[in-house]
Amino acid sequence: CAPWHLEISQALGGEEALAHLCKEAHKRGIKIVLWSTPAHLSNSSPLLLEHPEWVAQEASGIPVTWYPDVVGVSLFGGYFSYAMERYKSIRSLGVDGFWQDSFLTFGVLTDFSQPAPLSQLEKTILMQRAMREMGYNEIHIEGCGPFGLSSGGWGYGDPSFFSKIRGKEYGLYYYVVDTAFDEKAYFRGIASKGILGIISLERLTNEDKKALSKINRAYNKVLPYMKRRRLLGEGESWTGVEWRNGKRMIVLFSFKSFNYKLPARARVEDITLDKPEETRRGQLLTKPWHIYLINLD
Question: Is the dihedral of CA 218, 219, 224, 228 positive or negative?
């Protein structure tokens, strides 16, 4: 959530590698969507040292932060032009779209560094329009739901507030385990190495803490073998996730009970229960929300 700039990192090959990824993905009918921020940077960004006028301000005159490691930027000045130039350049690599992080916070902030303070909403809408004209056909905005429904979800804040809207809110994901713990959602996330943050562990019940620890212990045991992922499903329903480490070991996350075919000599351990698992006629009947380690030697 704290980018230094809108550049493609060299850590995985830079722009050349990203262009190659896009090309190969498109051959397979896959779109490439990147994560980005419409109106904030890391407070360690060299760009802010070069352009201190880009920093958005509160009414008191201090920078807009809201989080410890990021600062809001004004879309009324030079940052907007910089962002548009970078998005145009990235589009030339074949990228299909962006996930716009913190759209409902920094994206619509009121910048009091302006003589007549205004919300940035109009500028973020212009940003999206310009991105559409560049050819981006996938633009996802964090936190927006159908008209009339809160997109607050569960996460930061007073638990009593979230308890009042539970079941009435709309959210595409619950990425923070805080005022509520959804064991199944956590399991599904961790099955694809989607580690969920825990803001306030002390707020969880003892029962939730035990469930969390149980999943984490099993996950840490199988993590060394999770190298190549394959999603498992039947029709429109996901049944689990399979991970392989070469040809010898298989990790299996089960979302529902289903039969998983095995070679005759395979040995299976139910990591969730920490005990060997029986197989019948080369098939493993999985249990929902269990993790298995399969040895093919």
Answer: positive
Boundaries of domain holding 249: 228-295
Given a contact cutoff of 8 angstroms between Cβ atoms, the answer to whether 277 and 268 are in contact is yes
Dihedral angle at the C-alpha atoms of 260, 263, 266, 268, nearest 10 degrees? 0
pTM of the predicted structure, to 2 decimals = 0.60
Asked whether residue 220 is domain-assigned, the answer is no
Residue 266 lies in a domain: yes
pLDDT one-digit tens code per residue, 7-43: 999 988 999 999 999 999 999 999 999 999 989 999 9
Residue-wise pLDDT tens digits, 226-283: 999 999 998 878 899 999 988 789 999 999 999 999 887 888 999 999 887 777 678 8
Q: What is the CATH number of the domain that holds 266?
A: 2.60.40
Residue 119 within a domain? yes
